[in-house]
């Protein structure tokens, strides 16, 4: 089989050469690329003759996939699969495997980091002191004792609950089904409406599906406290981003921390969150830690091994 790794994936060239040696010794062809290209022509050229392709969160459309007539398997170095045309892969019997669980710790820690930054205004105050100013009359807020609403209690949501309980928070939870692990950590399940109304911070950890698209829109934001914060490290389209920006600018919620958007960064200069009041925006880094990438590489290549074997 011909195996093609379309992008670097945080793997060193030395480690790629070890993988190449491993697969070629078993009679397979192994190609890898040390640069990331997202245009469809380059993707199609790289994958055209592949039986197995490895890719992360680069969008794979039916247009690209239709040019890969030999493709039997996609090993996706990402948790979500909403960037893959799964209708096409299903119709053409292409096996798709994700890298479930590799970034659970990384994303949950970033969610906490965004909460702390908003509550203590770390990013803003870094600019203040660089301008030669002091604290003035600023007072921040502590995470301890706050009510945090966790929307989605899969692996990442549950890991976030574990961290929140260590901070001394009360945790409300909402999910399609209740999970014993979250309950054991002390989370209390309730309706989404009650969670939004009672929470000091709402943090989102649901996948993007037809049911969760714009799960948080103007109606839901109106239920939140004017002092509440919204954290999104899940998927951009889980929220109506225009509605969030409007709520921030109108003072209907107090702040927001976003790692994900409708499209992958860089964002357009006129993106509404970049001009919203008290919004912290980072360029989709929740999954991007050295530790997570090492775990991801193992999962992705083990998925390939299992398939070719």
Quickly list its features.
single chain; 309 residues; alpha/beta; Rossmann fold; 2 domains; seven-stranded parallel sheet; five-stranded parallel sheet; 12 strands; 37% helix
Written account of the structure:
The chain is an alpha/beta fold. The protein folds into two domains: 2-100 and 290-308, 3-Layer(aba) Sandwich (Rossmann fold), CATH 3.40.50.720; 104-281, NAD(P)-binding Rossmann-like Domain (Rossmann fold). It has helices at residues 13-25, 40-47, 62-65, 86-91, 104-120, 122-130, 155-166, 180-184, 192-198, 218-221, 241-249, 290-308, and strands at 2-5, 29-32, 52-55, 73-76, 95-97, 147-151, 170-174, 188-189, 201-204, 229-232, 255-258, 279-281. A seven-stranded parallel β-sheet has the order 8-7-6-9-10-11-12, with helices on both faces. A five-stranded parallel β-sheet has the order 2-1-3-4-5. β6 (147-151), α7 and β7 (170-174) form a beta-alpha-beta unit.
């Amino acid at each position: 089989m011909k195996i093609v790794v379309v992008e670097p994936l945080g793997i060193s060239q030395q480690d790629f050469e070890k993988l190449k040696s491993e697969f070629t010794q078993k009679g397979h062809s192994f190609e890898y690329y040390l640069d990331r290209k997202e245009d469809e022509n380059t993707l199609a050229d790289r994958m055209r003759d592949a039986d197995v392709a490895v890719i992360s969160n680069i969008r794979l459309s039916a247009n690209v996939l239709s040019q890969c007539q030999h493709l039997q398997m996609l090993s996706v170095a990402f948790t979500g699969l909403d960037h893959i045309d799964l209708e096409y892969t299903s119709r053409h019997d292409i096996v798709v495997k994700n890298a479930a669980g590799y970034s659970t710790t990384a994303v949950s820690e970033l969610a906490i980091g965004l909460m702390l930054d908003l509550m203590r205004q770390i990013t803003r105050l870094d600019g203040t002191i660089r301008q030669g100013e002091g604290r003035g009359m600023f007072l921040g807020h502590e995470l301890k004792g706050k009510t945090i609403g966790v929307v989605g209690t899969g692996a990442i949501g549950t890991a976030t609950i574990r961290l929140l309980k260590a901070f001394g928070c009360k945790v409300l939870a909402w999910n399609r089904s209740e999970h014993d692990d979250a309950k054991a950590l002390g989370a209390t399940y309730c309706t989404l409406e009650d969670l939004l109304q009672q929470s000091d911070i709402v943090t989102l950890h649901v996948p993007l599906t037809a049911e969760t698209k714009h799960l948080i829109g103007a109606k839901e934001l109106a239920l939140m406290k004017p002092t509440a914060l919204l954290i999104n490290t899940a998927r951009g389209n889980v929220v109506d981003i225009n509605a969030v920006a409007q709520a921030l600018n109108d003072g209907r919620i107090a702040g927001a921390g976003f790692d994900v958007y409708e499209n992958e960064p860089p964002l357009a200069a006129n993106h509404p969150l970049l001009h919203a009041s008290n919004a912290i925006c980072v360029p989709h880094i929740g999954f991007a830690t050295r530790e997570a990438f090492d775990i991801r590489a193992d999962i992705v290549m083990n998925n390939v091994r299992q398939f070719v074997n």
